[in-house]
Amino acid sequence: MHASKPTRARVTIPIDGKDEPFSPILLRDLCKCPVCIHEFTRQRLYSTTDIPPEIQVRSVTIVDEALIIHWEHDVPGFDAHHYTSISLDTLRGICKTGIAPGPAQVSLPKSALWDASSAGVPDFGYKAYMHDDATLLNVMDRLHSHGLVFITSVPTAEESVSAIAERMGPIKDTFYGKTWDVRTVPKANNVAYTSADLGFHTDLLYFDNPAHIQLLHCMQSSSTGGISVFVDAFKAALDLYAADIDAFNVLASLRVNYHYEHPASHLYHATKPVIDMRPLRVAHTTYDNLPDFLQASESTRKSLKRSAGAELPSLDVGDCLEKINWGVPFLAPLTLNSGSMEQASSSSTSTRECLNKKMDDWHAAAKKFSALLGRPEGLYERLMKPGECVLFNNTRVLHARKAFDSSDVGKARWLRGTYVDKDPFLSKLRVLEYKSEEASRMALSKGCVDEVLA
């Protein structure tokens, strides 16, 4: 079967009874032949910018659900025998969603908000987690969707927390070390190393990129106090959006400072909003507030569906949340950022008054958010026992600890902790999802063949 004659500007490809126009540069960029993509590294052997703007299609043929293209004015260094093969499924994906399907495009579970009544926090056995990839996938899926799971029957060995973490990805090394202990020490350099009540917080707020997953393995528990408390800060943020959108916008736009200030050894500092949003961008426009972005996004989605049949998902507020940055122990004094300085310089308002207003606005909004975080009906509480390890999304699920009696002789609370970053976590999750989907496809295909042969 031959496609209709291509033009220089667009190549028209018949897909499912409809002529679909494609840029020849786009089609050339999709080439995965061994001359374009290294067989073993799977990395490109040419640059997209090497494609001549005058590239043209010499011939287009569709064979066995694949598009075969020979080129005119191809990338310099490629001879006349070079051709590009693209599956029609790839082109269907581009037509529907604007994304070429592939291993990196596997479906990941959507975020699910929770409170105490709906948390349903699951426990997974250590042996199954360590030796069964299906269990590992279930754990990582749950971390991605809800942000909180427990591993039980963990050996009370110091290296156990490392073994659990490394099933998901390499450990994040920090100035605390690859792993660290949470227990009471004299002259502690972190409030976690005291027996005091520890409020809700994100770890490593003073890093530009805090750890994504935190692990805490209970080696020894106190008989008095020390209960671990968790809350879904995404739910609190969305509840704030529904109750007071102005307060939400303040926490999503005003940047505050976090630090770890020990001048003799470490001086970490980061500036960020409490509610970190994904880029609010539609086409070439970036939006300053969430309502305008959501309205523009939905309008564009409907327009693309009408004009091109594109099947793009609707976005809601939860889809726009990236991180929650919250932690009283690590707050540094509020300062003016560049936007506030520009506001002061372009008006008669003094820098002092700009800072006054920023503090007043942030304080009022933060108090409302803090109240939502502390609602009893939103909290998941658990007195961890030796052999239990909690895994949670450090940038979504805030954790706290109730005070305990440090004089509890012989039963002092002791946890072992470590971190995993987001990139390796998501990479491992995609690999597991891809293998699972491939196994399902193969099983379905085998079932169809067996049915035909029966």
TrEMBL record:
<dbReference type="InterPro" id="IPR010376">
    <property type="entry name" value="GBBH-like_N"/>
</dbReference>
<dbReference type="InterPro" id="IPR050411">
    <property type="entry name" value="AlphaKG_dependent_hydroxylases"/>
</dbReference>
<dbReference type="Pfam" id="PF06155">
    <property type="entry name" value="GBBH-like_N"/>
</dbReference>
<dbReference type="GO" id="GO:0046872">
    <property type="term" value="F:metal ion binding"/>
</dbReference>
<dbReference type="Pfam" id="PF02668">
    <property type="entry name" value="TauD"/>
</dbReference>
<feature type="domain" description="Gamma-butyrobetaine hydroxylase-like N-terminal">
    <location>
        <begin position="16"/>
        <end position="73"/>
    </location>
</feature>
<dbReference type="GO" id="GO:0005739">
    <property type="term" value="C:mitochondrion"/>
</dbReference>
<dbReference type="InterPro" id="IPR038492">
    <property type="entry name" value="GBBH-like_N_sf"/>
</dbReference>
<comment type="similarity">
    <text>Belongs to the gamma-BBH/TMLD family.</text>
</comment>
<dbReference type="InterPro" id="IPR003819">
    <property type="entry name" value="TauD/TfdA-like"/>
</dbReference>
<dbReference type="GO" id="GO:0016706">
    <property type="term" value="F:2-oxoglutarate-dependent dioxygenase activity"/>
</dbReference>
<keyword id="KW-0408">Iron</keyword>
<protein>
    <recommendedName>
        <fullName>TauD/TfdA-like domain-containing protein</fullName>
    </recommendedName>
</protein>
<keyword id="KW-0479">Metal-binding</keyword>
<keyword id="KW-0223">Dioxygenase</keyword>
<dbReference type="GO" id="GO:0045329">
    <property type="term" value="P:carnitine biosynthetic process"/>
</dbReference>
<dbReference type="InterPro" id="IPR042098">
    <property type="entry name" value="TauD-like_sf"/>
</dbReference>
<keyword id="KW-0560">Oxidoreductase</keyword>
<feature type="domain" description="TauD/TfdA-like">
    <location>
        <begin position="123"/>
        <end position="419"/>
    </location>
</feature>
